[in-house]
Design a protein that fits this description.
There is one protein chain. The protein is an alpha+beta fold. It has helices at about 1-15, 40-45, 70-90, 145-155, 210-215; strands at about 15-20, 25-30, 55-60, 65, 95, 115, 135-140, 160-165, 170-180, 185-190, 195, 205. It folds into two domains: about 1-35, no CATH class; about 70-215, tt1808, chain A. A hairpin with a 2-residue loop joins strand 1 (about 15-20) and strand 2.
């Protein structure tokens, strides 16, 4: 029975070949496989104390990603954007700050901000999904490459309609719209003397010059 179970497991996984010779079991061509964690496994890891207190992690396509500490400039930008949006969003739109989005069974990132549309099921019962968002905002300093190359394509694949990426190191805003499986079809870089607004909230106008000057809130 042990022999049959081993053969069945290996054949089912197609990870190698098994031969039996005079009572010896030889396994060849076994290939290592990365394990993609599910959201449930990720939560069990947290409950088991795998992560240190205060450690910033997020789950992206089955990988647990450790995030760098939040610097003072990054924190100030998130504070200013939070106040700006909270004061100006229409009634019913929720402003969520550095909290999870459940994008799939293997992805639960934590964007810096998300504007959420009203929905029948309370957000206290389940984290928002990609289509629940009106806008996702990432503030990037040390994380610029990761945000642009990993998280933004993930958001596109999972139906987040619009992403704003604030490149605070270079003083720039990038806007991504029209998600698809291959990424966002629209990529805008507005000048800092312009006013920007999310496509789903055209009356939520953001004066970029004031924002980058630090007095837009």
């Amino acid at each position: 029975m042990l022999w049959e179970g081993l053969v069945g497991a290996l054949r089912g996984g197609e990870v190698g070949t098994v031969s039996k010779d005079e009572g010896r079991v030889e396994v060849s061509a076994l290939q290592p496989r990365p394990h993609r964690f599910t959201v449930e496994e990720y939560y069990r890891m947290g409950e088991a104390g795998v992560f240190s207190p205060g450690q910033r992690v997020e789950l992206v396509e089955g990988e647990v990603v450790e995030m760098p500490p939040i610097g003072s400039s990054h924190a100030a930008w998130v504070d200013n954007l939070t106040m700006l949006f909270a004061r100006n969003v229409p009634a019913g739109v929720k402003v969520r700050v550095q909290n999870p989005l459940r994008l799939s069974d293997h992805s639960e990132p934590q964007p810096d901000l998300a504007l959420l549309r009203p929905r029948e099921r309370p957000y206290a019962e389940a984290h928002p999904s990609g289509p629940d968002t009106l806008l996702v905002v990432e503030v990037a300093d040390t994380s610029l490459g990761y945000d642009r190359e990993v998280k933004i394509p993930l958001y596109a694949r999972r139906g987040v309609p619009e992403v704003w990426l604030f490149d605070i190191g270079n003083g720039a805003l990038e806007i991504f719209r029209e998600p698809s499986a291959d990424g966002y079809r629209v990529h805008l870089r507005p000048a800092l003397d312009q006013v920007a607004a999310p496509a789903a909230l055209p009356d939520l106008k953001v004066d970029l010059a004031s924002l980058f000057a630090g007095d837009a809130s």
